Structures are given as C-alpha cells and as structure tokens.
User: Fold these one by one.
Assistant:
Number 1:
Amino acid sequence: MKNYISDYKKFDKENAYYGNDLGVTVDGEITRFKVWAPLCTAAYLNLYTGGDGDNKVETVCMRKIESGVWYVELFRDVYGMYYTYTLEYEYNETHEVVDLYAKACGVNGNRGYIANLAALNPEGWEDSARVVCKSPVDAIIYECHVRDFSISGTSGVHWSKMGRFEGFVEPNSRYEGVATGIDHLKELGITHVQLMPVADYATVDEKKNGSGQYNWGYDPKNYMCLEGSYSSNPEDGDVRIREFKTLVMELHKAGIGVILDVVFNHTYYTTESNFHMTVPYYYHRIDEHGMFTNGSGCGNETASEHLMMRKYMIDTLKFWVTEYKIDGFRFDLMGLHDIETMNIIRDELDKIDPSILMYGEGWTGGESPYPNDKLSFKWNSYSFGRIGLFNDNIRDAIKGSTFNLHDTGFVSGNGHANSAIKRGITANARYKSLQGTADDLCWAFTPAQAINYCEAHDNHTLWDKLSISVSDRSEEDRRRMDKLAAAIVILSQGVPFIQLGQDFLRTKPKVFKTHETANETNIYDGNSWNAPDETNMIRWDEKKKNLDVFSYYKALIALRKSSPLFRMRTSEELDEHLFFHDNGDDVITYELYSKDECYLIALNPQNEKKTVNLPNGVFYCRLNDEGKPVYKNVYGNVTVPRISCAVFKRIKE
Ligand code: CA
C-alpha cells in the first residue's frame, strides 16, 4: 500500500479526531459505530453471529463525517454480535479489520464483539476498589504470568481452571499443606501483582486451548480486548471479561492491586496489523525510505508522537482503569514512547486516581529514529519524574551483569559493586553524602522512580544466574547469596519488585530441541518467551522444599511494611534519615534514623562473619539471617554472619 502521509504534523492537523466515541456506543435502542480511517474511500460494517466462521448476517454502508471518521447507526440492540469493518482504498485495495476500539473480541481476536460490559460484572463488583497506595514506595510488586501461576499439577488448583484467570484466584489451594495460588500471594504480603500481558496477543491459537501452547504475550494484537486462552471459553466473547473481572475483584478483596503489562511499543503484525490496515503508515514510525523502523527489535515500532496513536494509548489505558479498576501499568520498552505522551498519560490517570502506578523499561530493543532526547529513556528520567523506571543498576550490582552469565555482583563476591549498591540503597536518587560517588548512577527524580529488582521474566532467574556464575560455591552459600540479594531489593529505598517464585528459588530448566545439546551454561533458559510449561511453570513443591527462603522473603516484606523509614518519599528525607557508616569495604552498614526509631542494617557479602559497630544505645536483632528476630539486648560491637544481612533495632538510647 502506498504511503499518502508525507508530513505527519500536517496530517494530524487536518485529520485528528478528538471525540470520545470511537468504537461502539450503545445508547438505548441505538447502536453507533465510529472508526477513524481518513485515508479510505469507502467503509462498511459487517455483523456476524460468531467470532469466526461463515456466519455474516449483514453488511452496512458507513458514511464519512468529520475528521476522517466513518459512521453508521443501527436502530436496535446488537449485544452479542461480532463485527468487523471493511475499508476500501484506491487501487481496489480492501481490508477487513478489527475495530481498534473493540472492547471485546471473538476467538483469536479476529472479530470485534459487542459486549454489554456492565452486565458482565461479577456479584460484588461495585464494592471492589483499587487498593490504597499513597506513594509508589508503599508498593511491593510481584510479577506473574497467568499460565505459569497455576498450570502445574502442584498448584492445587482444580484441573479445569489450571493456567487460567479462574485458577489465579481459586481460594484455599494447597500443595501438601503449603499455600499456593492467591493464598500464597496473601501469605507473602506483596501489595500488587503485575500481570504479564493479558490483552489479546497473537501467537497462541485459542481454538486449540488446552494443547500446551505457551507465550509470554509480548505479541500484541487487540489492545482493549483480553487474551482468550486464559478464559474457560475463548469462543464466547463474554466469558473472558467476566472471568478477568472476577480475578481483579478477588485480588482486590485480598488487598492486592492489579498492574497490567502493556505493550504499546510495537505490534505483532506489521502490514497486517489492525493499525496499519485501518490507517496505512500512520501508527508506526516510518523512515525516509518509507520503511518501518525497528526500535523494538520485533519488526516495527509505534509512533506515540502522532496524535491519534497518543490518543489511542490514553483511551486504552483509561478504559482498563475505568472498566476493570486496574491499579497500575508497566510499560514494555517505554524508551520508545515520547516523553510528552507519557506525561500526558500521567496527568490523565491522575484525574481518575493519582495512586495508579506507572513505570516501565527505560530502554528500547533497537534503534529508534525519533530524537533520543525526546524519548522516555532512563537517562532522560528527570523529564518524567513521576513515572518509574526499572533499576538495572541495582540489578546488575547485586548479581553481576545480566548480559554476561559468568559475571558476579555484590552478593557473589564482587567487591567492585559496593558503590553501586550504596546508590541503590538510596534509590539512585539525589543523596548528599554520596555526592561525587558514582554520580552517573544518580538518576531517580525521587525514590519512587526507582523500581528495584534483581530478577524479572527477562534473562535468567537469580537462582539460575548464581548457579552458573558461582558454580564452584556450595548450595548453602548460594542460598545465602539469594537471601542477601532479596534483603537489598526489599529493604532499599525505592519500589521493590520480585518475580513470581523468586521467593522460593525459581529455576527455569531448559527443554532442549532435537538439534540442541546441553552444556554447563545453557541448562537454564534465560529467554523462555515461548518455551514449554516444563521451563516456565511454577513448581509449587519448590516452595515447600525452600520454605526457609520463602519465610525470609516474607519477613523482609513485613519489615519493610512496618516502618516508614524503609519507604522514604523524597531526597530530603534520605538526607535527614539515612546515614552510611564507615566499615571499610568489607561490609555495607547504614543507619535509618528518626525521632521514633533507629535501625542499623548490615550487608555482609564476605564468606566470614564480620564485626560492625552499633550506634549508641541498646539494640536487639530485628532480623537475623533466618529472617527472625532475636530478642536479646546487644550494644557496641556485634557480629554479622557470613553472606547475610542483619537488621538491628534500637530499644533505648
Ligand atoms: Ca489471542
């Protein structure tokens, strides 16, 4: 298809539509359809009785009204019908597309679906509300994949719900007495789950549900629709909506917020995408030769700076927030979105609820042609200070570079990581007593901007990374390293982020294809986006086996929640309440101090116990290397066991 757009600013000026009624609007007995397609020469609405198959009942001609919008109204209720648009272009080119504003769809997302969304609210929905989160630093985020969560036989979830929205919130699931599923989330004490993409994606065939297909979901197809393979019946447009609302409601009942992982940065299909087929060459970035650019590394990148793409992102996010009561968004490859768009989104979400979380990856997957000083890269962080960024500095300082499997970090004996860890403890935010020390790591506008982590779905799990990078060390040593890493992530200033199963030593064993052979380093899968369940699923028996590690994570979370000193809001608070002690380079010790409380936190990565000095007063050990308090008075010098964190709390001055 030819690109008719030579000047995007001019095109926007002449064609952008600002109304809030794109898609389907039901007004009593009247159903209105509006699609923005300024480049087509004719448009038709097709109605079907099914999400696929030969069941078209009607084709209705649409007429062009203002700003490139095509419109038709039907004087009847068409709830339960499926629909597409047929758009005609010059040269007899014709495309049948799914409405970009379809709020529901049929099997495999090939047709839109006209759902009565309000009628799909589960009982009690009106009482479901977003969780209270006054500052992002009060959040403790847990990244989960819907299928991984309950697809294993060890999940204790009823077989008919395994791997699905329903299984995610089945109550009272157990593995040999150990809590699994939603009960595990409650037990651990996290405040938010971040769901890997649950909007409709392309590569799992929903017609073959139950055949063991797998994908992380970063292959977006319909942005306002839910993925069908997580529902009990992908053929019925209503079912996934009702089941997902139930998931949100049950998590809210448990006091847990729901964050969606949104993948606006690229589309799975390029020329076949609904974006391109609706308005050719508009929604993606195009180079001077008319080619799609590839800043995502997935074949294309979207153009958030084009007004209707920006509007699309805003409208989509507002839809998830208002219809599904979503608590936050994680933006995949956020570095591809322009800063202006991200700040507008923040403002728009603030109008609904300022506690809605927003954070993302401050990098791209390839080179973007858009000016880099206008993109949401981490190094431009101050230009979007209220949007969080994944802290890859603390990640790599803790365990070693993600891109070199053999590299080690602070917990695995790399003494060069100390200053980067100190920066991480202060959320990589401005902090007076670290002036001049690793200042390139001082990027967070406030502590709330730093999303601290050492494990996420990308790359190896922490446990697998340790297994490879310090394979010469004993399992006991590596368990201690894992726990020390958790202490840094959870007790540091900023927003802690944990991957599902990290709290019980999640591993992703690689399943080898016929032409592949195993060696020492490839036995774990660091990029399991389409690997089978054997690699990705949570084995809940590992929770039982590693219950000591789980209990330690749980204790850290409880400690973080117990005092505002672990959750400071501003750099000024850091200056006033956080002090590093000088213990040479062997151990990092720091004090958190207010008029009410005083803590000393010691991080000892050495393979021998170390002595540290407490501040004045009498203390007790609030958290030992097993995550337990030891109610015994201590003062002066205390010892910290090898490879561990110790937290002391003052009893009296
Ligand atoms: Ca799908």
Note: The chain has a mean pLDDT of 96.
Number 2:
Amino acid sequence: MKRWIAFVCLVGLVTGAGAEDWLRVRVEVPSPAALDLLLDSGLTTYTCEPTLGTTDMALSPSQLPELDFRGLRYKVVSTLKNPYDVPGEERPQATDYRNEYFTFSEIVGFFDNLVATRPKYVRRVQIGTSIQNRPIYAYRFGGPSVLNGPPSKHYAIVGLTHAREWITGSVVMHIGKMLADSLASPSTRSLVGQRVTWIVPVVNPDGYSYTWTTNRLWRKNRRNNGGSTGVDINRNYAKGWGGQGSSGSGSSDTYRGTAPFSEPETAAVRDLVLALPNFAGFIDFHSYSQLVLWPWSYTTASPPTAGQLQSVAIALRNAINTGGVVYTQGQASTALYIAAGTSKDYVYDVRANAPSFTIELRDTGQFGFELPPSQITPTQNEAWSAMLALFEQVGS
Ligand code: 0X9
Ligand code: ZN
C-alpha cells in the first residue's frame, strides 16, 4: 500500500490544549485496506460512520505516531476531554433521570422501582449474565388482563448495547416510565392497549460500567480475547455474521467474536426475542446520527418487506420530527454503511419480517457520544414519540 506522509494540522490548537486533552483526529480513508488498517489498530473510533472518505478517531497525543506508522494521513479537528477522566460509579447518587445520566446500578434501581410501584403492570426477568457476572435484565410492561384476553402483540426494546452511547439508557428508562404510567391510568391505557413491551435497558452491563469507571469511549463488551479486549455485540448476531462491516481482529471496535452468539449479551437478547409470542416489533437504540434505520444492514439488497419497513420508518421519523429536531430514515446498509451481524437483521429475519429498527439518537456529531445532560429530556421525548408511532403503525 502506498505510504503517505502524515499531515498534521495543529494550528492554534496545541497552544490552548491542557496536558490532559485528547484529540479528535480526522483520518483519510481512501481504500477498504486503509479502513481495515485503521479499525484493526485498536485505536478508539469517534464516529458512527467509520467509512471510506474520512473517519474520526479519539486519540491521545501520544497515539498519533500509530497513524504515522500505518501511513495514514490525518488532521486534528478539535480537542476532546480525556476519556479516562471518568466520574466513577461511586459519585453521589443521581436522582433525576430526565436530566442526569444513571450508572448501571441506578438504571436497575430505576426499573426495579417501577416493578415495586406498579407490580400489576411491570415485571422483571433475568435473561442472562454478563462475562463479569452482572445480571442482564428484561422488564415486561403489560396489563394483567392480557393473560386472559386475545393474544397480545409483543415488542422488544433494547438499550446500551454500545457502552458509550449513554443517551440510549436514558431513553429506555423514559419509555419504561411512560409505559408503566400509561398502563396504570385508565385515561391513557388505550395508548398501549393490549400490547406487551419488553425492555432490556442495559444489554452490555460490563462495557457500560467500564465507561463510568475507566474509559468513557468504550464501545464493546469486556470479553478477554487473549491480547485484546471486547466483542462488538452488534456484530455478534447470526444474520450475515462474519461479513462486510465487521472485523475478525480482537482489537477492532467492530470485532465480531469467535462465532455468532458467542457472547452472553447477544445470546440473552436472542433468547428473549425467540421466546415472545406474536412478535410485532423491535427497536435497538444507539447513538448518534439522528437516523431511523431498517434492514438490511449486512447487504445492500432490498429486504422482502422494504415498502412496509420504509413506511413505518417514515411514520417514526415524522413522529420524532414534530419535536423540531430532524431525523432521517433509510435502509441501514445504504443510508449508513454495511454492517454484518447486527441485531435488527437477526430479529427481522428470525421473527417473520417483524418491523425491526435501529434508531440512532442525537446528535449529529457536535457532542457525539457525550451528549450534554440538557439534551436528555428532549431526546427521551423523541424516543417516546417513536414508540407510540410504532404501536400505531403495527396496530393492535
Ligand atoms: O455500527 C453500529 O452498530 C450502529 N452504529 S453505532 O455508531 N451506534 O455503532 C449502526 C448499526 C446499523 N446498521 C448499519 N449501519 N448497517
Ligand atoms: Zn451503537
């Protein structure tokens, strides 16, 4: 491969930077080989779209030579907070889920409190255990009447697959709260109707804890790969596993693992989705990019029900956009990039083409994964609008 001379644009930057500052570095990616070189480097990605063209990375100044060494051209576009400068999980307990990010145990406490206050409508089931022995919980939201009534439609909603995408934990908490409140009040019960919604608030508890204790920008789980750490849970599902947009290298942020469902987190979501009767819809929340994405991810070929997926996605997007912030929709592989082994492809495939989406929440890159707490409430409202639109589209 042609070796470029690194071009560093540090003008006016280094002067203002503190000793602890990290750098947002835009790397030129002219070829698939260069993209592999970059992703397999084990350096931290700082973008939702590691694609040909340019890709942003989060690097300490001391890591810049690693790009030089690989012959990758780049420029520094801004400084970043040192991702190793983390709050720790022992900070004073958060109380306001509308305006503060919650740790793993706070999120569990929040959902357990919904179970305690609305026992008729909310139930908890442990669907798996992480590598570091943390529980993976799913919470069931539905009226008790559904036990005797007509077969209800079942939905699954998951958050915090990617550890650093903190806003996804906030939105699933809000959806849970709104579902519980809606079910418990006769005036709003019709919003939810006979439906049963299962929420897995934290698919990746080990990775999420690690973003609080050690590295704010960690994405994967904490699997010991022998010399590297972590499997990308959203490359570990069976559909298209091993294909384009996933890596066989343990150090990559998109490492697919040794086999489909090699990871307990992925297997837990699979088992839940396979167990639900009358499966009617799936949303996997991610950030960032403000996109409603539908299958396929693993191929640019059209899915069998493309027309239906697109019209549901348009309804979700329209519902979100009434709040004023603009999301767009599209088939994941063409609107974003090809990614093999993702959740929504698997769920769509295995559950008879049930509408399945990845929703990439705010923002479009200004703050990225570190969305300011002031944007938690409006983003939660957007997600709840999308949820209601999905219910409406699928029908009761
Ligand atoms: O790459 C992913 O897993 C998702 N983006 S993220 O930045 N949150 O990691 C997107 C998955 C959706 N599918 C495709 N982009 N093909
Ligand atoms: Zn993600």
Note: The pocket of N~2~-sulfamoyl-L-arginine (ligand 1) is lined by residues 48, 162, 165, 234, 286, 293, 297, 332-333, 336-339, 342, 358, 360 (CB under 6 Å).
